Amino acid sequence: MIRFDDLLQPDRGQPAHAIEMIARDDHVGWLARQSPRTRGMLAAQGFRGKPGDHAVLPGEGDDWHVVAVADGETPWSLAGLSAALPAGTYRIDGHGGGELGWLLGQYRFDRYRRADEDGARILLTRDAAGMAETIALAGATAQVRDLVNTPASDCGPADLEAAAAALAKRHGGTVTVRRGDELEQGYPMIHAVGHAAARDRAPRLIELIWGDQAAPRIALVGKGVSFDTGGLDIKPSSGMRLMKKDMGGAAHALALAELVMAARLPVRLHLLIPAVENAISGDAFRPGDVLRSRKGLTVENTNTDAEGRLILADALTRAGEERPELILDFATLTGAARVALGPDLPPLFSDDEALARDLLAAGVATHDPLWRLPLWNGYDELLKSDIADMVNAPDGGFAGAITAALFLRRFVPAGIPWAHLDVFAWRPTSKPGRPKGGDAYGLRAAFGLLKQRFPG
C-alpha cells in the first residue's frame, strides 16, 4: 500500500513548487491580468479556465510554478493535479484544502502489475493539526479499495480473518473466530449460507474487541460475502462478474474500525464480520428451505441470492446481545438501492431520528453524502411467510432496498440506535482521485459521526 505519510508533510518553508489556485468565478479576470506571453503559454497547454484545468509556467531561473482552477471547496480540488504533475514537492499559494484528494489522486492498485516508478508528489500543508487525520482517512479509503479490488481467489473468508487479526495486532485488540460446529449451532444462518464452499473457504464469524471495558460500547457490522454466485438461484455471468466486491461491507467496517482505533476514540469497539462464500455444491442451501436464526426466528429462504441479509441477521443479533449504545452496519446489499440512487449515493436506513440526522449532517460536513430512505412499516407485511416467521426476499421485487432493511431491523433489539448503509463499494467510472474500481462510500460520514458522539 502507498505510504500517504510520505506524500503530505508539514510546511516548514522547504523548497517547493508553488500551486496558485484560481477561483472558478475569477479565471476571466485573472487571465486578463496576465501578460500576452503568459496567456500564450496557457493557451498552448490547453488552459481554458475550466474547473480542474492546470498549466505549468516558468519562474526565475530553472524554477517553475503551477496555476490551476479550483473545483470548489471539496476534498477533490487537488486530486487531478497530484496525478498529472511531475514528481516533486509542492505547496498551495494562498488558500489550502484538498489534501485528501491530493493523496488519493496518487492511489494505484498494483498488486498484480508493476508499480509506477515515476516518483512521489509531495504536498506541504499548513494544516499540521489535521494532517494525521487526513493521512488516516486516505489510508482507510485505500484499504477499502485494495480489499474490494482484490479478486476472490486472494480474498476469501480466511483473508478477511487475517485482515482483522492484523488490525487487532496493530492496535491491541482481541479477535475471536467462530467456525465449524460452533458456527452451525450458534449462528445457523451464517453457516447455512457458507457451508457449500470449499473447506479452505469455510464460513466464519469474525469478532474483534478493542478499548476500555468501561467505555461506551459501539458495534460495527460488515457483510463479508467474499464471492456471490447467487447460490442455487444462480446469477448470470454478467451479474457475477463484480461479485468479488460483495465483501465491500466488511471492507468498510474494517476501515472504520482502523480509524476509530488509530484516533483512540473513547469507546469499547465490537467489530463483527460474518465471512462466507455463497457457493454452489451438493449441500448448498436451497430455495424453500426454512432456516433458524440465532435470534430464534425462522426464515423461509425464498431466494438464495438474498444471502447477505441472512448472515447480517445473525451478526446483528450477536451485536445486540452486548447492548451497545450504537450499531452501524455496512453492506453491498441490494441492486434496488443502485436503481434508486445510483452508485455514488448510499441509502441510509434508521428509525432513530437523532442518529439519522447526525449521520446525514456528517455526510454533508465531510463531502461524503448519504440519502435517507424510509423504514416504511407498511411494507413490513411483505416479509410474511406461509410456513415460517418471515421470508428473506418478498415476491415482486417492490421496494427491495427497504424490505431488505426491514428484514435486518427485526434482528436489532428495540431501543438500540441502529443505522444500515447499503453501499455499492464500486466506482463504475473514474473521477479525479477516484479511479474506477473498489471505493469507500459513507466511510468519512460514519467516522465524522463517531468523532462527534465520542470525542477523544
From TrEMBL:
Pfam families cross-referenced by the UniProt entry: Peptidase_M17 (PF00883), Peptidase_M17_N_1 (PF21337)
Cytosol aminopeptidase domain residues: 303-310
Gene3D superfamilies named in the record: Leucine Aminopeptidase, subunit E, domain 1 (3.40.220.10), Zn peptidases (3.40.630.10)
MF term (GO), any: aminopeptidase activity
Keywords: Aminopeptidase, Hydrolase, Manganese, Protease
PANTHER family xrefs: LEUCINE AMINOPEPTIDASE-RELATED, PEPTIDASE B
UniProt record similarity statement: Belongs to the peptidase M17 family.
Protein name in UniProt: Leucyl aminopeptidase family protein
Source organism (scientific name): Sphingomonas cynarae
